[in-house]
Amino acid sequence: MTVIKWRDSFNTGVAEFDREHHKLIELIEMMHSAVRDKSGKEVAETACDELVAYAVSHFDNEEKAMAAVGYPELEAHRAEHSLLKQEAQNFQRRIAANFPDGVTELYRFLREWLANHIQDCDKKYGPFLKEKQDIP
Ligand SMILES: [Fe+2]
After folding, report:
1. How far is the CA of 81 from the centre of ligand 1 (A)?
2. Ligand 1 mean position, distance from CA 17 (Å)
3. From CA 90, how far away is CA 125, in angstroms rounded?
């Protein structure tokens, strides 16, 4: 069973961010398999930490790219990232304190937000960034 599969509708058209979104999905799957295979609290926690750290640096990368080209919806997008960060960090703390409590909800949450955020918010910056960065 996979938690989330890549869909064509996730493509933003910006190769760097599509790559990072792929990586996020891969990290969600890694965390999921660590729990499914009962690899233990430590392995699952490491996977969870890696996922959250990667998501945070990915958001920074997106925000920097949007700021560099004067993307008009940057502030709204940043606010959305900030909520997601808080929520993911809450889960991270909960999992660390009471593993495996919270893990299933974390998948569900990540699956939802990844799909919605990419398809609603990230896809909007695609054409803007491509035009400004002159990406063929
Ligand atoms: Fe984003």
Report:
1. 6
2. 9
3. 28
Distance from residue 88's CA to the centre of ligand 1 (Å): 14
CA distance 89 to 53: 10
Instruction: List, in sequence order, the alpha helices (H) in the chain.
Output: 15-36, 41-68, 74-98, 103-117, 123-133
Please state the pTM of the whole predicted model. 0.89
Domain boundaries of the chain, sorted by first residue: 14-131
Each residue's pLDDT tens digit in the chain (136 positions)? 677 889 999 999 999 999 999 999 999 888 888 888 888 888 888 888 998 999 999 999 999 999 999 999 999 999 999 999 999 899 889 888 888 778 888 878 888 888 899 999 999 999 999 888 765 5
Dist. CA 93 → ligand 1 center (Å): 23
Q: Which fold has domain 14-131?
A: Four Helix Bundle (Hemerythrin (Met), subunit A) (1.20.120)
